[in-house]
Amino acid sequence: MSGPGAEWDAALAEGRFLLQRPVGGGSTVFPPRAFAPGTGAPLEWFEASGHGTVYSATWIQRKPPEPRYNVVLIDLAEGARMMGRVEGVTPETLHIGMAVKARIIAGEAPIIVFDPVEQAHG
Amino acid sequence: MGDTFPRGRVSVAGAATFGVGEMPGHSTIEMAGKAVQLALANAAIGLSEVDGLFIALPDDLFAGLSLAQYLGLHPRFTDNNRAGGASFMSHLVTACMMLDAGYLDCAVIAYGANQRSSGGKLSTPARPDRWDAPYNPMYPLSFYALAAARHMHQYGTTREELASVAVAARLWANTNPEAFAKGPLTIEDVIASRLISSPIRARDCCLVTDGAAALVLTRTDRAKDGPQPLVPVLGAAAATWYNSVTQAEDITVTAAAESGPRAMAMAGLAPGQIDTVQLYDAFTINTILFLEDLGFCAKGEGGAFVASGAISPGGSLPVNTNGGGLSCCHPGMYGMFAMVEAVRQMRGTAANQIAGAKTALAHGNGGTLSAQATVIFGNAETV
Fold first, then answer.
1. Which pLDDT score, from 0 to 100, does residue A120 have?
2. Helix (H) or strand (E) holding B18
3. What is the pLDDT of residues B347-359, one digit of tens each?
4. Which of B102, B141, B167, B195 is deepest in the core (most CB within 10 A)?
5. What does the pLDDT look like over B61-73, one tens digit per residue?
6. How many CB atoms lie within 10 A of CB B38?
7. Cut 0.95: pTM above it
8. Which 254-293 residues of chain B touch chain A by CB within 8 A?
9. Is the pLDDT of residue B279 over 90?
C-alpha cells in the first residue's frame, strides 16, 4: 500500500488533480497527508475543481539568454494553497487576484499549471 | 505551564567573530574552531571546561560530533539543531535551560562558513520540497520574493521602501571596520540593480561572505566574575510554523509574531523597552516583516517605518548596527552574527555603539520565513 504522496502521483498520472478533506467536513488539505494536520482526523480524497486565484507571483530572470518565467502561489477554490505557474501571461498581465484554472500537462513527470480564466466583459 | 525561562540566570561569558568577510583557505570546521578559541579567550575560560557544544554548519550533518573531535572534548551534550539561520537562537534556548538546570556548566554555540572563498555562491543542502520544486523557484530567494510581492499588494509597500532597508544597512556598515560592503549606496542604486526574482533585485539580497562566530555561556553567578561586562539572557523563544512558506496562512505574517512576544514576556519587556534590534536581514523584505511581527510597528506599516529613517544611524530604533547580512557579512546562516552584535552593544563595545543601551533583541530566521527565534539580552542593570 502506498503513502498519500504516491496515491496523489498515481491519480495525477491518470489526469486527475486530487485534494483531501476530513471525513465529515473541514478545511481542505494539500499537500497530501495521512491524516488532517493539526487534528489527526481521517481524510478522504476528492477531485479539485481546478479553479483558483493568484495569491502572489514572482518573475524569475536567470542570466540571459534564458527566458524569464513566473512562479505563483494559487489559492484553490476549495481552500488549500499550492505553488504553480501561470501560462500565457507577461509581467504586465499576470497579477495578484487573477482568476485561473488548473491544467495537467501529461508526460513522464506530469505537472499542474494554470491558465488565466477569461473574465466576462460587462 | 510552558515558556518557563531562567530570566537573567544564564549570561554570555565570551563572544567572538573570526574571518568576517574573506578568509580563504579555511574549512568550515576550522573557521568555527577558531571562533570558539577566540570566544573562550574572551571569557578567560579554558577549553577543557566546555561541556556542551551547540553548532550547525552548512556542509556537515554531524557538526556536533565534528566539533567535539576538532576541539578534543568529550562533551556531556551536543546539539546540531538545524533551523536554518535561526538555529543558533534555538541552540541558546536549549543551552540556557541545561545550564540553569545544572546539566551543563559551560556551553559553546558556534558557526563557521567559507561561502565566499569556496565559490561565492550561497551553499546550502536545503532544497524546495517536492510540491514546490516542479515550478523551479529559486531557493530560498523566490519564496521571499513571493512574500514581498504579497506585502506590496496587501499594504501598498513600495519598491523605494524596500530599498531604504539596504541603504540603512549600508550606512551602519560604513562606520563598522568589520563590515564587508562599504561605500555609498542610494535608493536609486538598489532599484537599478539587477532583477533576480521580482520584486527582489541584487541589492535587496544579503552578501555572500566568509565568517565564523561563537558564544560562551555560563550561569550568571560565574559570568559575574569573568573579565567581560555582564550580558544576561533575559528571554529566548523559538517558533516554527512550517518548512515551506507556501503553506503560510498569510504570507505577510511570520512566526516572529509568536517568538517575539514570547521572548519579551519572559524578559518582562515591551517592544518600546528594547534599545536596539539585530535581525536576520537575508533580504530587504525581512527587516520590514520582522519589525512588524516583533511589534515595533503595526502590520503593514513596516515600509513607512523603515523609510522614515527610524532604523538608520540616529534613528529611534537602531536596527542591525553592524550593517547586517546586507552589508556586514552573510556566511550562510547569519543568526550567530546578530547575537554577537547584540552582545557587543550590551557590553558597550560595538563599532556603532548605541549610548545607554541596556537591552538588545537578536532575531534569527530560518528556511523560507519558516523558523523564527528571538533572544533578548540585557546588561548588569537589567538583572
1. 58
2. strand B10-21
3. 999 999 999 999 9
4. B167
5. 999 999 999 999 9
6. 18
7. yes
8. none
9. yes
The single-letter code of the amino acid at B118 is: S
Kindly tell me if the per-residue pLDDT of A121 is higher than 90.
no
Indicate which of A18, A83, A89 best probes the interface with B, i.e. most B CBs within 10 Å of its own CB: A83
Gap between the Cα atoms of B302 and A78, Å rounded: 32
**CB atoms inside a 10 Å sphere around CB B348:** 13
Phi then psi dihedrals of residue B271, to 5 deg: -50, -35
Other Cβ atoms less than 10 A from the Cβ of A51: the count is 16
Residues of A in contact with B197 (CB under 8 A): 58-61, 71
Q: What is the mean pLDDT of residues A7-30?
A: 97
pLDDT tens-digit readout, A77-119? 999 999 999 999 999 999 999 999 999 999 999 999 999 998 6
Q: Which of B231, B224, B228 is nearest to B41 (CA)?
A: B228
Q: Which residue has the cell 523603515?
A: B306
Tell the residue number behind the cell numbers 534590534, with chain if given. B277
Kindly write down the DSSP assignment for every residue of chain A, as one continuous string: ---HHHHHHHHHHTT--EEEEETTS---B-S--SS-TTT---EEEEE---EEEEEEEEEE--STTSPPEEEEEEEETTS-EEEE-B-S--TTT--TT-EEEEEEE-SSS-EEEEEEPPPPP-
The pLDDT assigned to A122 comes to 44
B192/chain A closest Cα distance in angstroms: 15
Q: Which residues of A touch B137 (CB under 8 A)?
A: 58, 60, 71, 83
Nearest residue to B273 (alpha-carbon basis) of B296, B304, B256, B305: B296
Instruction: Tell me the average pLDDT across B191-197.
Output: 98
Cis peptide leading into residue A4 (ω within 30°): no
Q: How far apart are CA B67 and CA B54, in angstroms?
A: 9
Cα distance between residue B85 and residue B258, in whole Å: 17
**What is the grid cell recorded at B22?**
574573506
Q: Quick one: B68 exposed, middle or buried, by C-beta within 10 A (0-12, 13-18, 19+)? A: middle
Least confident of B88-102, B116-130, B147-161: B116-130
| Chain B CA closest to residue A30 | B247
